[in-house]
Write a structure and sequence with these properties.
Blueprint (H helix, E strand, L loop, with lengths): L3 E6 L5 H12 L4 E7 L3 H11 L2 H12 L11 H8 L15 E5 L5 H8 L4 E5 L7 H4 L6 E5 L11 H7 L7 E6 L9 E6 L8 H24 L24 H11 L7
Parallel strand pairs: 1-2, 1-4, 2-3, 4-5
Antiparallel strand pairs: 5-6, 6-7
Helix pairs in contact: 1-8, 4-8
Amino acid sequence: MTKSLIVFCPNPYSLYTNSVCELLIRRGYTIDAIVIKKFTITRFQNEFKRDGKRLLKKIWKKLVLRDTAYTGEAGSIVGFRKEKNLTIKNVEDFKKHGTNIVYCKSLNDAVVEETLKRYDEKLIIFTGGGIIRKNILDLAGDGIINCHMGILPRYKGMDLPEWCILENRFDQFGLTLHFMDSGIDTGKILQKVSIPLGNSSSIKSLRNRFEPVMVDSMVNTVENYLRGELEPQTQPTGENRQYFIVHKRLYEIVDKKIARHLGIKVKD
């Protein structure tokens, strides 16, 4: 039986979401539903508690500037989209491909439960939107695939490229495609993807380089899993550390460490 593909999305204009969905459709897959988390006052308050003032920068970049936020940034997702000739910028446009568009206040809402119950055999692709609770995990069919911006099992949590640099672990940049579970980044691993520092001279340019790799990695992992070519691997026990948001004062240190690693002289 063919599995239904359902995508969890943080906002209708997500370059990540739109790129993943458009590439999968090009490869012959149908996106049966996209579940979009509405931007509400409650959502803003909850995310502000977690992210603080940097949430405002994220909103400005993701919802206001969109493509123009990447002007002049080599290797960014915008350049990737141009190279691949990806044109869809709003998930609403996937309706013409037969995709059901569902809006919710939270990805754990009853409306999401009802949406998932409509599909028997299914695989969910997570492209953002917050923590997933047990009620949704229990209805997720094969599971919910997430692209984590860190190499598991060591690097769990947030701001992992920054923490790799602060710990002088320049060989640990990368992504992990894994199934989500009730823990924080503890689900079964499908694939790991290493990303070299290259010529990225700042944490901003490094992060921008991650985004196209995330798109490609998610699409390839979903396809390989559906073909039966990937066997989920349980994470080893013992790596229980979790990383949290890097304080803004550490960013200068992060960029200096990158420069020194590249052999660029910097002032102490």
